[in-house]
Amino acid sequence: MTSNFKVKYDLIVIGGGPAGSIAAYTAAKLGLTTLMLEKDRDFGIPVRCGEGVGMKGLREFIEPDPKWLDNKLDRVRFHAPDGTLVPVNLIEKGAILNRKVFDFELAKRAAIAGAKVQNRCCATGMERVNGALTVKFEHFAKEYRVSAPLVIGADGVESRVGRWAGLNTNLALVDIQTCFQYTLQHPNIDAEFCDFYFGNEVAPGGYLWIFPKGPQYANVGLGISGDRAKNRSPKEYLDSFIYEHFNRASYLCSIAGSVPSGKALKKIVADGVMLAGDAAHQSDPITGGGIVSAMWGGRLAAQTAVKALEKGDFTERQLNEYTKSWHKIIGEEHNRHYRLKKGVHKLNDDIFNRTARILLDLPFEQRTLRKIFQTALINEPGLVVDIVKAFLQ
Ligand SMILES: Cc1cc2nc3c(=O)[nH]c(=O)nc-3n(C[C@H](O)[C@H](O)[C@H](O)COP(=O)(O)OP(=O)(O)OC[C@H]3O[C@@H](n4cnc5c(N)ncnc54)[C@H](O)[C@@H]3O)c2cc1C
User: Fold this and answer.
1) Which among 296, 284, 302 is positioned nearest to 62, based on CA atoms?
2) Where in the chain is the domain with CATH 3.50.50.60?
3) Is the pTM value of this prediction over 0.85?
4) Which one of 9, 14, 31, 231 has the fewest CB atoms closer than 10 angstroms to its CB?
5) Nearest Cα residue to atom 15 of ligand 1
6) 257 C-alpha to center of ligand 1: Å?
């Protein structure tokens, strides 16, 4: 029987989430022979995501399609620990995706662009042989080997590619959000609003979200800082909240997962290897949002791969072009958000409550996310410069 795979490619992408599919799509469009391996049976399943995304960020990569867009939103409410409710003016419109369809469509688009895309392929190892990288993977209980001068590790938060390449991707507990989420049906779910709840009782060191996917049904989840999850799990926090707000809900799905919320990794490349998306800890430290930044990571890494192939130079030094472009477009902002996150973590419930009341006194048009952070952190002089840079530039 002949193999379904060539032996050599210009680029191997490991992982078929948003980072991997955009990397494979970009590389194939630019003429590279590209192989993308995905370990799961289906692209996009299981979903480990709240599926919330900004329209502007999304449009940079793909035109919105009702096929995978469950809901569009421009109304957000913040709930302070004492119950004060603040409607917020969302300048950038938001959307709730259907990632089962979205991720599948991204993978299909990469295939149509010319990449060889394959599900049920779990990469199990990587080694350097004669200057190229050989990737080992399992496909229906058979082992295969393929090689390429370049590999993009887009294998998510538990990335093994990073470790195989000798990159340090460890995270401190405080820089991990541990999450739990249900997709619920309940008559009290309002399809018009995204809701965010803050406070030590609800989600210590993080927040709880309600992202409505349609009438009466929503992703309801929370993330808490890893260092605060020792005595009570995210599921226990979430169950208490649901008991109080959505008693007797129907449960359509449940997921657990973690989101890196640390600084941008300094080293995301090694000789022949680039990491993108969650594998490179590219999700936003404040919001935990990682879909759009993963797509940026995938695109920039693929563009760098094209240049490396043109030059025949696959060294870390050459690939650092990716690190630089990532830092310029997203990484600098990411690090500012990290500093803000550190500030927000220090805030207690009283400050959240006070901030909510100050915001309520403002006219609705002035209640922007920028204003919220300004107000909450105004008594943290060390952070004023960061606030100004993050939100006023
Ligand atoms: C509970 C939760 C809620 C979230 N909510 C949001 C949100 O609302 N908005 C937002 O923007 N972000 C959210 N995120 C973060 C977002 O899901 C990720 O940042 C995003 O999916 C990162 O994309 P990625 O392509 O880097 O990784 P992933 O989407 O994780 O894709 C990695 C892929 O690699 C595959 N893979 C792994 N190992 C191998 C291997 N050895 N061989 C082959 N394939 C492999 C996996 O199966 C997976 O398909 C949330 C995360 C969690 C956990």
Assistant:
1) 296
2) 11-46+100-170+265-335
3) yes
4) 231
5) 290
6) 9
